[in-house]
Design brief:
By secondary structure, the protein is an alpha/beta fold. It is 28% helix and 22% strand.
């Protein structure tokens, strides 16, 4: 893999490796003995995902954690689960969507995406790219799920807003893998272009700040520092209160 990005926590020296950055940032979290994969990219990136895992020497996974079940995050979960015989973690709100291999589009946060997504959802239109191979989850998340059981100093935290079943993975209370709960956008904005519930999204930003994490790694774009997230939280909270 060229230009591999890696982070190491200070407390327990857990490694976080970004193994894919095209379409969706996918991450490995490992302590050398236990390993989880966070998100699985689109189906068309399957060969790249396998190649990257092999090049990094990961031939076994303890679990796959889906931050949510959109096609760009769940596109390879069924294939990888069968290959590695590992657990699959998903939030209760999206268990059924994963089981049928299709999740409705989230509402667009900006014009014209807001008009388009409302129309598509109102008329129950399913676009071809929304579909992926169905997968049955083995572990259902509700609010918080501790990953100590598989040997990692990390936990899964429910962070709805982008979707109602979105989750984040808090690693060593230092680094958060946040899926689409935020992005790394132009001009320092972290607000995602698709949001099902803006109020829940800001509540989730607050929850993430309350973890004490210093870095927030989204599924699209580069890392966000705590300062950036805090500034955006204050700005959007004020904007919401003024409405």
């Amino acid at each position: 893999m060229k230009h591999r990005k890696e982070w190491i926590t200070k407390k327990n020296k857990l490694r976080i490796l970004k193994i894919s950055s095209i379409k969706c940032n996918c991450y490995l979290v490992t302590n050398g003995q236990s390993t989880i994969l966070v998100d699985t990219n689109i189906t068309l990136k399957r060969k790249q995902m396998l190649r990257n895992l092999n090049e990094l020497g990961f031939h076994q996974l303890n679990a796959i954690v889906l931050t949510h079940t959109h096609f760009d995050h769940a596109g390879n979960v069924a294939f990888l689960r069968n290959k590695f015989r590992c657990a699959v973690f998903v939030h209760d709100a999206e268990e059924e969507k994963l089981a049928v291999g299709c999740t409705p589009l989230p509402l667009g946060a900006i014009f014209p995406l807001s008009i388009l997504t409302r129309y598509v959802n109102k008329h129950h239109i399913v676009l071809p790219f929304q579909k992926y191979e169905p997968c049955k989850a083995t572990t259902i998340i509700h609010d918080i799920y501790n990953l100590n059981a598989i040997g990692l100093a990390a936990y899964i935290l429910h962070t709805p807003g982008h979707t109602f079943g979105s989750v984040s993975i808090i690693v060593d209370e230092e680094i958060a893998l946040v899926g689409d709960t935020m992005v790394h956008g132009v001009g320092g904005s972290i607000y995602p272009p698709f949001v099902d519930n803006p109020k829940l999204l800001l509540n989730s930003w607050q929850k993430l700040l309350n973890t004490g994490c210093r870095l927030f790694l989204p599924a699209h774009g580069g890392e966000n520092t705590r300062i950036v997230v805090s500034r955006c939280f204050d700005r959007y909270t004020k904007k919401q209160n003024d409405c």
